[in-house]
Amino acid sequence: MSFITAKNLTRRYDLSDPWIVRQLTFRPKRFLTAVNDVSFSVEKGTTYALVGESGSGKSTIAKMAVGLLAPSAGTITLDNHNLNDRNLSPQSQQSMRRRIQMVFQSPYASLNPRWRVGDILAEPIQSFDLIQGAKNQAKRVDELLEQVGLSPSDAKKYPHEFSGGQRQRISIARALSSQPEVIICDEPTSALDVSVQAQVLNLLKSLQKEFSLTYLFITHDLAVVSSVANRIGVLNKGALVEEASPKELFTNPKQDYTRMLLNAAPKML
Amino acid sequence: MTQPLLEVKNISVEFKTRRGALKAVDDLSIDVQPGEILGLVGESGAGKSMMGAAILGLIDPPGRLSKGEIWFKGQRIDQNPETLRGCEISMIFQDPLVSLNPLKKIGDQLVETILRHKKMSRAQAIDRARKGLIEVGIDPERLNAYPHTFSGGMRQRVVIALALAPEPSLIIADEPTTALDVSVQAQILELLKKLCRGRGTSIILITHDMGVISETADRVGVLYAGRLAEIGSTNQVLRSSKHPYTQGLVASTPKIDTSSFGQSLYQIPGSMPKLDAIPTGCAFHPRCTQGTLKCSQERPPMMNNAAACWLLEETRQGI
């Protein structure tokens, strides 16, 4: 049973000059197709990785999946609900948003530096009205911090008091706080050291087992993908060029582009 | 052995604070042979970038070089590094977005660098700049373009052209590919390697990525908490690492290896100590799985098999 389904997903950006400039220069409108007719599906409790270079449309797909961007054509559905459906009532939209969360690339930019960690983690709980009462909320925050390997006393600190890896743990705790079913990870480890990266990837895997989470994992590094993904989709210039299990993809890549990516990944002796 | 191009002898970099001096680099010695690519790896805070800054004399106060000597081509340079900076030793920084001046055309930036260090006319310098751009694979017609019109990989190519322009004998590359994609990273490393091999330029390649090291470097030094943990040829350090920290770093690097799908990566327990709380003895001992009592009491010297670890002494005695 597929949980996230993208069907003929397309996103165009309008790069045209202002109307008056077009009239004066006789230039037509210009469009950039960032995502072109992409279809894939993700099973519940598995990890689907989207791999590609900068500008291949990975992050645009992530934004459409969480409903931050509307597709120009096609649909992306979560458990058969369409996040971008205009006819959806605000209440059901809100309840959809609770089920899907995001972990961003840079833990330095994605946490509010003026908020204490406890407040950062409590915000989704309050905005989705999940737990009533400050005491119960604080208890939940402590629990979240322990789940990601931090200590409850860290709730009183500010983000700058933590290292990069610890901050990414806070980001993950924030994503978990609304008890989501899907987490979109947009390059969660590319700002981190190798040793810290291993810790964060292992944490994501153990959380997946514990809460049967579904991940959409976005990265440019095939080596990272090999340890976490159940299925890999390779994007090139907005189009899905190849889709396979990691084993298939690494032993028998079908596209030249995939082969190029595999060769580019630094190899250990 | 020929005379090394660069010799760093027992240097320490200290930052004075109210709670005492923090040592970002602690009694560290390395040397670089002519034409060699030396990799320096370690986690954030290991002192890799401080090392590069120390060689160029770019340590900002309150930090200072508190101890040691730096020799370049048989000349002591830690007293007056300005004479060589940019000319004999140049630097490539991590982020090509920040290291180019956004208000100046790249041609002007190249010409400025060349004229600063070489005695030649402006026309000659422009000609030189064109040749420099061709070498790094950029159309010389783009001399009059601004940095923002280039992509990240192209900008890093411009930065390489800029670093090579005064024909230095040593380039310090501080995480030159961390801000780039994997496929662009491969191109940039290949280019850097090709150009430096062609000219016999040495490189100190600073990175946290073991994969980058294994593809590029001849020799590699592993830094931990400002100290050298292990040094040796790339082959030796990566294939048969002696120091437990190096072993952990190698094991935690994700590999494209068909046998390891879906398996968890190895992780080194704990994290790098803060500079104000560096453990006694071996700085790595709280995270080390094989630590003994001696490790927590005495700082291990560099053993003659080029790793600073007490375990190696014991195995040697055992034999």
Largest interface: A-B, 39 and 43 residues
Structural class estimated from helices and strands of chain B: alpha/beta
Q: Identify the strand order in the major beta sheet of chain B.
A: 6-7-8-3-9-10
**What is the arithmetic mean of pLDDT of chain A?**
87
Annotation, overall tally of beta strands of chain A: 10
Report the biggest beta sheet of chain A as strand number plus sense, adding barrel if it closes: 6 strands, mixed
Topology of chain B as a string of helices (H) and strands (E): EEEHEEEHHHHEHEHEEHHHH
Number of β-strand runs of chain B: 10
Q: How much strand content do the residues of chain B show?
A: 15-25%
H/E series of chain A: EHEEHEEHEHHHEHEHEEHH
Overall pLDDT level of chain B: 84
Q: Rg of chain A to the nearest angstrom?
A: 20 Å
Name the structural class of chain A.
Answer: alpha/beta
Largest sheet of chain B: 6 strands, mixed
Strand content of chain A: 15-25%
Helix content of chain B: 25-40%
Which word captures the global form of chain A? globular
pLDDT under 50 segments of chain B (min length 5)? none
The low-confidence parts of chain A are none
* Distinct helical segment count of chain B: 11
Secondary structure: elements and pairs:
The complex is a heterodimer of chains A (269) and B (319).
Chain A: E1 2-14, H1 19-25, E2 31-43, E3 47-51, H2 58-66, E4 73-78, E5 81-82, H3 90-99, E6 100-103, H4 117-127, H5 134-147, H6 164-176, E7 182-186, H7 194-211, E8 214-219, H8 222-228, E9 231-236, E10 239-244, H9 246-251, H10 256-264
Parallel strand pairs in A: 3-8, 3-9, 6-7, 7-8
Antiparallel strand pairs in A: 1-2, 1-4, 4-5, 9-10
Chain B: E1 6-17, E2 20-32, E3 37-41, H1 48-56, E4 63-72, E5 75-76, E6 89-92, H2 96-99, H3 106-117, H4 122-135, H5 152-164, E7 170-174, H6 182-199, E8 202-207, H7 210-216, E9 219-224, E10 227-233, H8 234-239, H9 244-252, H10 293-297, H11 310-318
